[in-house]
């Protein structure tokens, strides 16, 4: 009866060999949904895998996953799950398209959207990092219907993008926290979170006013995940504090938040002042903290200010004969083409962290 039941759902009678295919957890991460959602779709709508191993252990083949990807695509457009499941099963009973036949013959390797490309330039809400190479991946068009071109990136990006498009808060938090736990803050930001943010940004730019809510939703949850992942702020050490602030008129704080989390992870004292800090307030904050370094973020060239960076770099404090100045880092795409002579300009998150660690270590070595 089991074979006939599968045939009525549009599935073939053949089962995958034991141990092949993806587990339910792997499928859930790929789709950007909770494992309970995958199991519910199996139990309630008959969208389970063709093959089981060792009793109730499920193994999902590329054809099984393709059905769930189609389910995700339909529900993301607002179609009720029951109606979406009927559509998926109806389509499964029809002659498979060439792409589906190719997928069924391919090994159970997660696919990625067709490469599209390049970073979004100075409009991308991210610290670039060329120092960490992405994991090899398969270039193929996603059947998930997300419409986000993610390029040659880690597989986790696709699940995070889908969860963001569905505005699924629980799944998004789980996927972000898993990525950070598995890869560490720097690699998770560079290889998983940043490419997804850039893809959402490109989608928003090319779709008029659509997807603005997705960008805000994703950014908010990334911010929360970063704060949860970062350890408590390190205690102040004389001359070792790092001040992070956006230049006046700049409100893109997310790259600074990941930098703050990465520095806290390394035990460096950080003072984060966020977006659009007025000039007078920035100067006051620097004088009050006496930092080893100040990192000034500018997303746009219209907000990057050379005179401001030079003014902060010239500030001094301490007793006569032992005066100190902060090392000022100009970070973010807004400083491109506006380099300030003598001031470090790291081009990525890993480089910024390395520079700040060196500065703090050097300052600590000369502290009285």
Descriptive account of the structure:
With 368 residues, the chain is of the alpha/beta class. The chain folds into 3 domains: 2-105, Orthogonal Bundle (Multidrug-efflux Transporter Regulator, Chain: A, Domain 2), CATH 1.10.1660; 121-229, Methionine synthase domain (Methyltransferase, Methionine Synthase (B12-binding Domains), Chain A, domain 1), CATH 1.10.1240.10; 242-366, Cobalamin-binding domain (Rossmann fold, 3-Layer(aba) Sandwich). 48% of the residues lie in helices and 7% in strands. It has 14 helices and 6 strands. It has helices at 2-8, 24-31, 35-45, 62-76, 81-93, 98-105, 156-165, 169-183, 185-206, 212-229, 254-265, 279-289, 306-314, 349-366; strands at 51-53, 57-59, 242-246, 270-272, 293-297, 327-331. It has a 4-stranded parallel β-sheet with strand order 4-3-5-6, with helices on both faces. Helix 4 (62-76) packs across helix 5 (81-93), helix 7 runs antiparallel to helix 8 (169-183) and helix 7 (156-165) crosses helix 9. The N and C termini lie far apart (81 Å).
Q: Strand tally, please?
A: 6
User: Mean of residue pLDDT?
Assistant: 75
Order of the strands making up the biggest sheet = 4-3-5-6
Q: Which range does the strand content fall in? A: 5-15%
